[in-house]
Amino acid sequence: MAKSTLTPEQAQLLDNQLCFALYSTSLAMTKLYKPLLEELGLTYPQYLVMLVLWEHDGLMVSALGERLFLDSGTLTPLLKRMEAAGWLSRQRDAQDERRVTIRLTSAGRKLQAQATQIPGCILDASQCALPELISLTQQVQALRERLTSPRA
């Protein structure tokens, strides 16, 4: 691990905290998405669920939770609200009722076409070139992997 060039006092400044940079950026990003998603009737967590299902429909709740880093206690009420809105269906496995498969409805599939402008809006708002945004995304994903991987 590289030695810090910051003094202990500098290391404790809010603006020198990676966690705060990520947290405050996440808040800004969510705020940016809010009006775009309101047009579709989606919340940000619901949009994330839809992104996964548009990519891989018919997932088990457990697989969806793993993909989104959400536990079933958080995901289940979210999915129930989305089912009530008509965007997806939840089907219990006949052999094992603990296993629930999530499938898009036709209304959920139609939302995908309505959401096509969102990535471009986010790219424009970021004021980044596409390669820069892709690189930044990959760096944050790599950091997440290092933080969530078991330490040797």
Automatic annotation (TrEMBL):
Q: Where in the cell is it found?
A: Cytoplasm
Q: Which Pfam families match?
A: Staph_reg_Sar_Rot
Q: Which GO terms describe its molecular function?
A: DNA binding
Indicate yes or no for the key word Transit peptide.
Answer: no
Q: Does the keyword Transit peptide apply?
A: no
Entry keyword set:
Cytoplasm, DNA-binding, Transcription, Transcription regulation
Highest taxon of the lineage: Bacteria
List, for all copies, the residue spans of the domain called HTH marR-type: 15-149
Q: What Gene3D superfamilies does the record tag this protein with?
A: Winged helix-like DNA-binding domain superfamily/Winged helix DNA-binding domain
**SMART domains recorded:** HTH_MARR (SM00347)
Would you tell me the protein name for this molecule?
A: DNA-binding MarR family transcriptional regulator
